[in-house]
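Subject: mismatched residue count in predicted assembly?

I count 779 residues in my input, but I want to confirm that the predicted structure covers every chain. Input:
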Amino acid sequence: MANVLLARMGEVTLKGLNRGSFEIQLKSNLKYRLKKFGNLKIYQSQSRIWIEPKEEDNPNFQSMASAEAIMKAVCQVFGIVSVSLARKFEGDFESIKENAFICVQELLENNPGYTTFKVESKRGNKTFPMTSPEICEELGYQILQKFPNLSVKVKNPDFILNVEIRESNYVYSGKMMAHRGLPVGSCAKGMLLLSGGIDSPVAGFMMATRGMPLDAVYFHSYPYTSDLAKQKVIDLAKIVSGFSGRMTLHIVNFTQIQLDLYKHSPQDMLTVTMRRVMLQIAERLAQKNDCKCLITGESLGQVASQTMEAIAATNEVVKMPILRPLIGIDKQATCDISRNIGAFETSILPYEDCCTVFVAKHPKTHPHPEDIIEAEKDLDIESLVEAGVLGTEDIVIDPF
Amino acid sequence: MIYFDNSATTFVSDAVKARIIELTEDSLSANPGALHKLGNKAAELYEGIRKETAEFLGAKSEEIYFTSCATESANTAIKGYMSRNKRAGNAVISTRTEHKATLECLEYLSKLGYEIRYVKVGMDGKPVIGSLEEELKKGGVALACFTLVNNETGSVLPFEEITKTIKAVSPDTAIYLDCVQALGKMPINLSAMGADMCSFSGHKIHSVKGNGVLYIRKGVKIDPLILGGGQQEGMRSGTQSPVLAGAFLAALKEVSSEIDEARSEVLKINSYLRKELAERGAKILSPDDSLPYVLNVSFEGFESETMLHCLEIYDIYVSTVSACSAKQKKVSYVLLEMGVDRKTAANAVRLSFSRYNTMDEAVEFIKRVDEIYDQFLVK
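Triage response: the counts match. Full output below for your records.
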């Protein structure tokens, strides 16, 4: 007997001829994400991926409680729908019964309020002498004998005991839900403009759900912003990398550029000119790092720089597509996702990524094209962008 | 490195380090409460340290209790006095410029139903005597809490005048005095001063973190904050640490020597910086007659935190209570209470010195400030 993890695949199984490459990517991502959980065997059968410890005493598989960390890590891998901790064993109905008893016992110890259950069974191995309904019926009866306080309830029971008869037998109950999506690496890489706020980590997460690997760029204005602000962004990148996998965070030394912009462009246009320069730097870094798009956390109308006119003004300076997964999403919904991925508490730490001296009191919310030409007439944009690209520090971020 | 953040904490002096190593000898490490020979030796050592500490502070041995920090001393004194002396009155007098260790205790007392009356503070950072009299005359004042040297401005409390006023109007009011920033920087003789309770901190005078002292004048009764095995006459339970008490004493000995000489050296640094900074348009917020160890300055054109990080580039360390945040501007409540306007307070930086700082450092500091203005001022 050994405990194993049963991970269910989602959208990947709908793929046609290229399904194989998605599955290979998914298994490779699982292998990377579960690196710190010991020596593991990861293999697939039909729409399931099985994760088994190679050593029996692997502490991450001993019980529901000790498996929580590895199950959470599995759930961070896009392409997985849910994961369960299952008991794997060989043998006849007697062995199924014994393992089911142990499973129910552990379940009741952790959830003393449970009083109702049902058994569900799947029999892939047709040589097994009992049919699925027979297994359910007999096992249900045996459980009722062994645990007299329990009763059967077919609709909405407190727990379902699952039995699967395949090459081996499996018994489990309950599952942890994952984020679905497609395995990261199944499409081209994107460059995420990451700030210390709530939105951009969520934007990165959302693109990664569609299989997009990420690099990120952050614009640092030390000493106007502190190293704590930079550390906060590194921490956020780490959180996002839990889902997107290894990423490189490009930290642009933006101080001098920001000072130049401040000196040579009108106050009310500062936000627009600054964002135009930022996007151009991001695009150059994206090209250098094999990224095919830029990703921002912009949401229409949220702040002065996110009105349609301001977005148009920043959009026109780059050729690459800019993906804005939050563009039509309400702030509250973004906050909910942020909480769900564990980024919110870090995002709301009080270290600002832009000093108030650079924030115009009344920024232009509807800049006209001629305003932009006027605002940039004294600026050598090309040299500012070049300086930004050259003054970049790269940090490789892993989730563990 | 130029360290002008000595009011936050100080580096540990060599003498203290050496003393800590001596006191961690196996033969001295027994529990002072143990009945065996080793325990007796540790107890003797501890009591010796206590006696000597008391002598340096002008107090009796039994008036000195070792705590973990000045915040614990403040909590014990303020809460303990009000808890024990319920019939002394329902009001506590203080100012809004106290350290948080005091203010949070007062906030706690106010939740318990005590009345907290705040005395007005002038531009010089000192309590206005007329306001003090007025609050005292309302009656029922059990306790008055003040700070001898303000940690943000260096403003020195006119303690004699305050005591005289309190004793004249409300003779039964007990006095708690936060002496943290004064220790080692001005002579302190507790028996002569007449405060009823005082707090001190070790790490502000080049000891390690984790040791403080509470003085309770003989005859003053308070309830202990920490209950347990009844150590230190039941006033502060918890196994006594000769190492930490010894570290405090070693630091105290050092800073108590040549107080005047050290102060005159620091005064030179302070005066030089005041003059040079004022010439550059900075506003000096520390009152003229404040203790020279603290200099609060507002730099035109730089928010406090930005200036702090600019200086950090040059390996110069200062502090600020204001944080640069677009959403929430946190400004020093001490400066606001003194009547400093919000904009000036938002640019305030505290330079705080120790006897180990030098004139060369002050000159270097000014040079760097000039460079920062050239390079980083956003006009």
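The radius of gyration of chain B is 22 Å. Marking this ticket as 'not a bug'.
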